[in-house]
Structures are given as structure tokens and as C-alpha cells.
Amino acid sequence: MVEKPTIKVPTVHLRGGSAIRRPLIVLAVCAVGVVGYLARDFLIPTAGAVVLALMLTPVAAALERTGLPNTPAAAVSVSLLALAMVGLLAVAVPSISSWAEQAPYLTYTLERKLEGLRKSWALVKEVSDRVEQAATAAPASNTAATTTEKVVVREKSLLNELASTTPAVVLQLGYAGVLAFMLLAHRNSHRRQLLRIPATWTLRVRLARVMRDINDRVGHYLFALAVIYTCVAVAATVALVLLGVSNAIVWGIVMGLASFVPFVGAPAVIALVTVVALLSFDDWPRIVAVPVALTVIHLAESQFLTPTFVSRRCALNTVAVFVAIALLGWMWGVVGAIVAVPLLILISTVAAHLPSLRWLEVLLADDRPVSEKLAVKPPLASVKRPPPQVRRRRVAAR
Q1: What is the pLDDT tens value at each position of the chain, 398 positions in all?
Q2: Which of 164, 193, 220, 226 is a good FRET partner for 149, with 20 to 30 A between their CA atoms?
Q3: What's this model's pTM, rounded to 2 decimal places?
């Protein structure tokens, strides 16, 4: 009988600490959550700028290898991203305006397409209406004037709402762009300054490895995802054009952007485009073909492309990713849902190098801690350990 080899799984224990330490940790986490919610107008563009700077780091590094200085390379990287965003808005805004103007007609068309389904629920609706009439018959005369007054008071045009929110959005975008440019342009000098803070050689090496792994895991991860989701947008656009869907370019772009939000982004866009297909087409085979084509593209990306081209060291616990997306999406909206995964990878990378946070790394890991995967990497090429004579003199001086 052949014995099966045993696999040793490392165990992480929480050690030490006084009785008040854990309550203080809980209070600190709650305080961070409260600050994150109250200061969201400042933290949303800041987090977005950090994520953009990390995503554009490979681009800026490639430009610098061609001989371009740091500042022009950062300016070109941010300018290319800004031009891409302006192009997306130029394509999307006319379509959105057209949909807003045709909203009543689109609603009527959708109701006509779903007439058969509505008739099947006619009995349920009739019973519900009778119950509602019986419950509101008595106070109807007293509340009629109040109801009319409420509608008039709450009426607010879309133009006024856009005019009130646009300046704040423009300021946040400008702040995020400038901060991303500064982080890109001065990243090398900031790295050298940070390495001067630790007093011991061990802490300096650990900090250098943290910054290297952040750039490797988060920066290259985001850049790889940007390339993959660009391919998703192109494939979705081609599929929708072949199926005859109106504004196919817009829906392809939305499909690519929504893919940055795992679990919910792509399915939400597929459901929305299915509604558009119901409004646009009369034949059910074409209506069904639209969500089927987008679902095939989404499955090909999530099951084949991303696992193949994105390193396994970026994989996180599914539950942790879902909770992070839900929490930051509730606190910061769409931007929070997009930056949730990069921030989670950032926290996991830092925790991988701190023994006191190894438990957090284990909780965020998908199968085994990231520190084990990072341990096989070669040592830092830029860090040279001093010779033994110098190390002995330093020890003696202490």
C-alpha cells in the first residue's frame, strides 16, 4: 500500500495583546468607516487618483525606457487617459440625451412588447387594485389637495439637477487627474524618500519589497485588466453591430467599464441591453441573441482570458471581494465599486509583509497566503546588503 504524501498547511494564530487591544481594533475600524463615509467627497477622487496612477505606471515606465523624462512621460500617460475619457463622453452624451427625450415612447413600446406577460397577471393586478381602492377610499378626499401640492413642491427639472452637480464632478475629476500626474511624475523620488524613513536595514528592505510588490501586483494587474476589458468592449461592440442594436458603440463601452466591477457589473449591463433589445426588435430570436452573445463574451473573459493573463497572486477571497464591493459601493457609489478590488489587493500586499497583519492576509487570500507566493520571488536587485565587516561595525556601534 502506497502512502499518500501529506500536504502541510501553515496555520496563523493571533498572539499576544492585552484585553483592551481587540476592542480598540474594532473601534479603529469603525472610526475608519465613519471617516470614509463622511469624507467621501475628498476620498473618492483621491482613491481614484491612486488607482489611476498605479494603472498608468507601466505606460509611464515604457515611455521612460524610450528616453523620455519622468514628468513628460507622466503628462503623456495622463493626457492619453484624459483623451480617451473625453472621447467616451463625446460618444455617450448624445445617445443619453436621445434616450431621455424618447423616454415616454420607449416606455409605451416596452409595455406593448410585454402585453402578453401583463395579461397573464391581469387577475392579480385586479385584486390588488380592489384592495388598494378599499383601503384608500375614505381618506381620498382629504389627501387629494395634499398630494397635488407635494407633486408641485417636489418637481425639479433634470437640467437644474445637472447644473448643480456638474461643477463638483468637474472639480473632483480635475483634482484626481492632477494628483495622478504628480504621483506618476515623482514616484521615483517619493520611493527614495520613503526608503530613508526606516532606521534599520531590515525595515528598509521590507519597505522596498512592499513598494515593489504593490507596483507588481496592483499596477500590472490593473493594466492587464484595462487591456482585457478593452478587448471585451470591442467584442461586445462588434457583436451588437452585427445584431443591429442601436448605439452599439455606447453599449460596448459600458460593457467594458462595467467589467471592472466583479459579479454585478457585466450581468447588470447584459440585463439593460436585453431591455434595449426588447424595445428595438420585434422578432424574439434576435432579442434572445443579444443577451446570449454578451453572456458568451463575459464568460470567455471571466473564465479564460482573465485567469490566463492575470497572475494568480492577485486572486482574493470571493466573499471578501463581494463584501468590499458592496461596502465601498454603498459608501462611495460607482467609483467605490470600481476601486474596491485594487484597494483590497493593496491591503493584502501590505499585510503580506507585516507579521502582525498576517491573519488579515490569510483572510483575504483565495487558497493560500500571498506571502508564500511572494517568497519565491528573487531578491531586490537594487538593494545590496552591506559586507559583513560593515554589519559587524554597525552592531558594535549599537
Answers
A1: 455 555 555 555 555 555 676 677 778 878 888 888 888 888 888 888 888 888 888 888 888 888 888 889 889 989 988 888 888 777 777 766 666 665 565 665 666 655 655 555 555 566 566 656 665 654 444 444 444 444 444 444 444 554 556 677 778 888 888 888 998 888 888 888 888 887 788 888 888 888 888 877 777 788 888 889 999 999 999 999 898 888 888 888 889 888 888 888 889 899 988 888 887 787 888 888 999 999 999 999 888 888 777 755 566 778 888 888 888 888 888 888 888 888 888 888 888 887 777 777 778 877 655 555 554 454 554 445 555 665 566 556 55
A2: 164
A3: 0.67
Question: Which sequence spans correspond to the domains of the chain?
Answer: 39-114+167-187, 215-315, 316-384
- Write the CB contacts of 140 (distance below 8 Å, at least 6 apart in sequence): none
Which are the contacts of 225, defined by CB distance < 8 A and separation ≥ 6?
260, 306, 310
Question: What three-state secondary structure class fits 387?
Answer: coil
Give the separation between CA 314 and CA 299, rounded to whole angstroms: 19
Q: How far apart are CA 73 and CA 185, in angstroms?
A: 8
Please compute Rg for the chain using Cα positions: 27
**Spatial separation of the C-alpha atoms in residues 322 and 337, rounded to whole Å:** 10
* Of 167, 194, 181, 146, residue with least CA distance to 56: 181
